[in-house]
Amino acid sequence: MKKIIALLTGGTTGEWVISVKSAATIAQNLDADKFEVYKIMLTQQGWFYEPADSMKIEVDRNDFSLTIKGKKITFDGVFIAIHGAPGEDGKLQGYFDMIGLPYTTCDALTSAVTMNKGYTKAIVNGIDQLHIAKSAQIFKGGDYSLEQLKKDLKAPYFVKPNNGGSSIGMTKVNHPNDLQAAIDKAFKEDTQVLIEEFISGREFTIGVVKLDGKVTALPATEVETAKEFFDFEAKYTPGVATETTPAVIRDETRVRVEQIAKNVYAKLNCSGVVRIDFILTEDEGDFYFIEINTIPGQTATSFIPQQVAAAGIKLNDFYTKLIRETIG
């Protein structure tokens, strides 16, 4: 019997464009012999299934079902491919938990906590061999002193929306005089802002996934960009960044990195596939945690498909195992 899977895409943030591309990759690589897939678009206007041959059909949110030509369709599980709200922040996971429908991502609590970069860092702090940049978290309308921030933190800084994704609203500040403008920009995206000391080093990202009952780290990717940092343009415009998968690092560094990444996955109680961004200081020294993405991009140029290929796994098999692990 084929499993009936809802592939949920779209979302209510600027990242919905990437979500649609991710869903296209996933749809192309879900085994048609094993899964019957319905791609469902979630927007501020509603949740719809859009068959090629007819009008769009609204999802019944009482039980997340569809009625097509008089026949009711219910799902065995949901493949969530929504980056940002409401797919990555725990809201959808909470809804699916309440109606008893399994899904491919971290649970509601982990999803909600990991959307908040400051809270995440507090939880992973203390993991063996993991380092965290000195930072300050400020709140819109809250009582913060620009002068105190400049005293407490050394420039340059990264200023970022605490709950954002895809580097939207993020700025690298080289001079303390430019700090206020960067804070104002970040507050346009979020009510909480994180200001971090800049860590100099090589930038990497690594996928971690539970497959066949075992937590596995995928081959890491090194990211090099001519830009000041890996921003939205560098992430999604071909040619702006150079991505090397698997990253060229010493064997002992690779083993250490993979263990730290698996420890982060365990400490945050992750499930499904996540991606951890980090920096290695000079000569593959200290591992600095940047952030975790609990619904990483799956577009044709995204890191996870690159890393899956480097691990010698077909994307088709990877998604099959991911569904079996999370949905059953």
Give me some keywords for this one.
328 residues; alpha+beta; Rossmann fold; D-amino Acid Aminotransferase, Chain A, domain 1; Dna Ligase, domain 1; 3 domains; seven-stranded mixed β-sheet; 10 helices; EC 6.3.2.4; D-alanine--D-alanine ligase
The helical percent reads: 25-40%
CATH C-level category of the largest domain: Alpha Beta
- Distance N to C terminus: 13 Å
Using the 3D structure, state the CATH architecture of the largest domain: 2-Layer Sandwich
How is this structure best described in words?
- The chain is an alpha+beta fold.
- It folds into three domains: 3-105, Rossmann fold (3-Layer(aba) Sandwich), CATH 3.40.50.20; 113-131 and 200-326, D-amino Acid Aminotransferase, Chain A, domain 1 (2-Layer Sandwich), CATH 3.30.470; 134-197, ATP-grasp fold, A domain (Dna Ligase, domain 1, 2-Layer Sandwich).
- The protein contains ten helices and 18 strands.
- The protein has helices spanning 16-28, 91-99, 108-114, 117-124, 146-152, 179-187, 232-236, 251-267, 303-310, 315-326; strands at residues 3-10, 35-43, 46-49, 57-58, 66-68, 71-73, 77-80, 130-132, 135-139, 157-161, 171-173, 192-197, 202-211, 214-217, 221-225, 241-244, 273-280, 287-293.
- The strands form four sheets. Strands 8, 13, 14, 15, 16, 17 and 18 form a seven-stranded mixed β-sheet that branches. A five-stranded mixed β-sheet has the order 4-3-2-1-7, with helices on one face.
- A hairpin with a 2-residue loop joins strand 5 and strand 6 (71-73).
- Helix 2 packs antiparallel against helix 3.
- It is globular, with a radius of gyration of 20 Å.
